[in-house]
Design goal:
The complex is a heterodimer of chains A (325) and B (412). With 325 residues, chain A is α/β, with parallel strands linked by helices. Chain A contains 12 helices and 14 strands. In chain A, β2, α2 and β3 form a beta-alpha-beta unit. In chain A, α1 runs parallel beside α7, α3 runs parallel beside α4 and α8 crosses α12. In chain B, strands 11, 14, 15, 16, 17, 18 and 19 form a 7-stranded mixed beta sheet that branches. Classes of the chains: A alpha/beta (325), B alpha+beta (412).
């Protein structure tokens, strides 16, 4: 078992799949010789060469258009959108074409592609380069949506996404790129649509995604040590498919749900989970659902303001202590 | 939609509306009582036949009408009507405005609040309903004394669930050293039925003593797991009921009714379980085809009818077609009770306290004395229907089944 960074796990997963399947190709801005602006694709250009690892012009529509065309004609492309905010400029291709191709062709055509993108805040990049937009993708039928929180999950879930016959939106949280974690040696392929229970506690169930997972874990330790509150922490990992079986089971056990979401509050993924909980396990609830989110505002670039808006471990602790009884 | 006077029992032709729980214009539901009805046999709550709104009441409280008569009209769900906007406004505010909302929306009821006025969480409401608890009796540990799920579980663990029989309220004697306690409707019905039964049937009491050691072992073997899985304790009663059902197969004439000069013997065994309602009267809801049920299912059925009896949730069908009755006075540790027959049946069994006693045990090496859980099974039978030998043989068979059956295997 090796200790890898989150960014190294990205490159490992892509390399693993490119070695295994020569139809897998990789394209994006500065992903080749430069190794990616976040250094998440270092070494791939050298190993697989310019035919399979292609630097593109600065045109997100060109990147995704090319990925879509190559997927339609037999390749398994991985396309990188440098900042997930830029998905907005190619949303017609994503939402209307890529997501719908299998349906519109009556199943004659599949779309085996992965759109990787650096998502989320915490890096002082300002309102147009820091958004957490996984919920944009979640609401489009036809897309799978994954957002890992650890290096091992990055490797296993990205490999699974590349092997999936349908389009997968893969959201890497950019502030997590430097974090380290142990990743099993050898080939690693995880399962899409599975959540993970990271901590068991009897008092409250915290459901978190991506960068909010380590913060929820830190908060859970703090709650236990300082306040005698034991929290279960569930890492959602995949918004579509959503592992409702695991998530609802863990919420039923404690009767209390706290979602920790980086996305702005309105229509955040936690709202969807709250809705499913109300539909399916209402009678297991032992108190109001608590959603801890970024407020419905453009994310500020100033350090103190960005820190104040995104859910922090301290805020998670405070909100739970104040509201859980 | 018409609301009709329900059939309250096979021999009942009419019923009296004793309470209307809803007023004209109120939202009515299949899950909430609409009115109470009483007959010469029972008093019960009746829910609305459909979701909707009460449009018209045709039969006032105290009026007796034939079964099947239309007593009210409801407008079915879907149309816009006036209901209390308690959920949206401040529930404690008497001036809470009325708002037009679809009939489906319901407001929080007072019963869904704890002693401090806090609303109950869904999980707490479910536990309270399942265990027939009064939330105001539970101490809350949450904010502002809010009751949390764990508070209910703690309350149940401390015996809140096992319905301890409470003493009747203290009397307030007046100056002439008496207090007048008027009979309520159920008390009157019980009294009438008892007098009529004693006047109708020549009662004979017979009793046997049974050794419950095998039952006790089987219960001990599963008690923890059973309670955890089923949410209630496995008592002696289901075992006795099972033995009764089996013995009836060999002695069917105790499972009968008298009709004029005929004894009507029933093929089906529909077992009535007598339930004491906090000293306020007695009901005996029926478990249909009890002889067809495995022991576990019988235990659940007994629990179900007892709980529903105590929470006034019995339905008309729960009182019809009974063929034999078991009455359980065991909770007070009595030794023997001479029960009164549940007319028009011909026999009734009373089970009393099961206590440890020294018992002579016969073995090949001679007699020894052991400590065994022993209880008396007492049957009153109608001497018009059967004679002592038949009843005694039946009782002996019940005892034999209780003492010799491998109950641990039956349960596994």
């Amino acid at each position: 078992m090796a200790e890898l960074t989150y960014r190294e796990a990205v490159a490992e997963a892509i390399a693993q799949e490119m070695r295994r399947d020569e139809d897998v190709v990789f394209l994006g801005e500065d992903i080749g010789a430069a190794g990616g602006v976040f250094k998440a694709t270092v070494g791939l250009f050298k190993e697989f060469g310019p035919e399979r690892v292609r630097d593109t012009p600065i045109s997100e529509q060109a990147i995704l258009g090319a990925a879509m065309g190559s997927a339609m004609t037999g390749l398994k492309p991985i396309a990188e959108i440098m900042f997930s905010d830029f998905l907005a400029v190619c949303w017609d291709i994503v939402a209307n074409e890529i997501a719908k191709a299998r349906y519109m062709t009556g199943g004659q055509m599949s779309m085996p592609l992965v759109i990787r993108t650096a998502n989320g805040g915490g890096s002082r990049f300002g309102a147009q380069h820091s958004q957490s937009v996984e919920n944009w993708a979640m609401m489009i039928p036809g897309l799978k949506v994954v957002a890992p929180s650890s290096p091992a999950d990055v490797k296993g879930l990205l490999a699974a996404a590349i092997r999936d016959p349908d389009p997968v939106m893969f959201f890497e949280q950019k502030s997590l790129y430097p974090i380290k974690g142990f990743v099993p040696d050898g080939e690693l392929v995880d399962e899409l649509g599975t959540a993970k229970v990271l901590r068991d506690g009897g008092d409250v169930t915290i459901v978190a995604l991506a960068a909010m997972v380590p913060r929820a874990m830190k908060a859970a330790e703090e709650l236990s040590a300082q306040h005698g509150i034991e929290a279960t922490v569930v890492d959602v990992r995949s918004l579509v498919p959503l592992d409702t079986q695991t998530i609802l089971r863990e919420i039923s056990k404690t009767g209390r749900l706290v979602t920790v979401e980086e996305n702005p509050r309105l229509c955040g993924w936690g709202a969807e989970i709250a809705s499913i909980v109300a539909d399916e396990i209402f009678w297991d609830l032992d108190g109001p659902i608590i959603r801890i989110t970024t407020p419905h505002i453009p994310l500020p670039a100033a350090d103190a303001l960005e820190d104040a808006t995104m859910p922090s471990a301290e805020r998670i602790v405070r909100e739970i202590v104040e509201n859980i009884d | 939609m018409d609301v009709i006077m329900p059939q309250l029992g096979e021999t009942v032709a009419e019923g009296t509306v004793s309470v209307w729980h809803k007023a004209i214009g109120d939202t009515v539901s299949t899950k909430e009582p609409l009115f109470d009805v009483s007959s010469d046999k029972v008093e019960m709550e009746v829910p609305a036949p459909a979701e909707g709104t009460l449009l018209e009441i045709r039969v006032d409280v105290g009026i007796t009408v034939p079964v099947g008569e239309v007593i009210a009209i409801i407008m079915r769900e879907g149309e816009v009507i006036e209901v209390d906007a308690g959920l949206a406004g401040k529930p404690e505010d008497p001036a809470a405005s009325k708002a037009a909302v679809p009939a489906r929306e319901v407001s929080i009821k007072a019963a869904n609040r704890d002693a401090n006025g806090n609303p109950l969480s869904p999980a707490v409401r479910r536990l309270v309903a399942q265990n027939s608890l009064d939330p105001r009796a539970i101490t809350g540990s949450g904010m502002k004394g809010r009751i949390k799920k764990k508070d209910v579980l703690a309350y149940l663990a401390n015996g809140g669930a096992s319905r301890t029989v409470s003493a009747p309220p203290p009397l307030n004697f007046s100056e002439d050293d008496t207090e007048i306690i008027p009979f309520n409707k159920l008390r009157k019905l019980t009294a009438d039925h008892m007098v009529r039964s004693k006047a109708t049937s020549p009662h004979v009491l017979q009793a046997v003593e049974a050794d419950f050691v095998r039952v006790a072992r089987a219960r001990a073997g599963v008690s923890g797991a059973w309670k955890k899985r089923e949410g209630f304790s496995l008592t002696y009663l289901p075992f006795i009921a099972k033995a009764v059902c089996e013995a009836i197969r060999e002695f069917p004439r105790v499972n009968a009714a008298i009709d004029g000069e005929n004894l009507v013997v029933f093929r089906r065994v529909n077992l009535c379980i007598a339930v004491d309602l906090d000293f306020d009267g007695l009901v005996a809801p029926v478990i249909k085809d009890a002889d067809q049920m495995p022991l576990q299912e019988l235990a659940r059925a007994i629990r179900d009818v007892s709980e529903r009896a105590r929470t006034n949730q019995l339905k008309p069908g729960d009182f019809t077609e009974g063929t034999y009755t078991v009455s359980n006075s065991g909770v007070f540790g009595t030794m023997i009770t001479a029960p009164i027959i549940n007319q028009p049946q011909v026999a009734i069994l009373s089970t009393d306290g099961i206590t440890k006693k020294p018992v002579v045990i016969e073995t090949e090496d001679g007699d020894t004395i052991g400590i065994r859980p022993v209880g008396v099974l007492a049957q009153s039978f109608d001497h018009r229907a059967i004679d002592g030998a038949y009843s005694a043989a039946f009782l002996n068979r019940v005892r034999e089944i209780i003492q010799t059956r491998d109950w641990a295997t039956v349960l596994s």
